[in-house]
């Protein structure tokens, strides 16, 4: 059984006991959260989508808040002496899917 769910504006294919990284979510570590924007669900070869999923939910637990790898941004204009170097680390939340309710 798996589901495609919208989490923080991105779509993820999730299954029970799976751990994924999503964009930073509000909540403390160990807190339980539910996502109700289920777009598609598969159960034993039968697919459900659209209005058939009006009450479907995906429940998860927040494991930790982490930062991604550093991405360097470098800008330069030739012959002008202009150089600018900047770094960015995106914040993620690691969650564990605890169940899918249809």
Automatic annotation (TrEMBL):
Keywords associated with the record: Ribonucleoprotein, Ribosomal protein, RNA-binding, rRNA-binding
InterPro entries: bL21-like, bL21-like_sf, Ribosomal_bL21, Ribosomal_bL21_CS
UniProt-listed Pfam families: Ribosomal_L21p
Listed GO biological process terms: translation
NCBIfam families named in the record: L21 (TIGR00061)
Family as reported in the entry's similarity comment: Belongs to the bacterial ribosomal protein bL21 family.
UniProt name for this protein: Large ribosomal subunit protein bL21
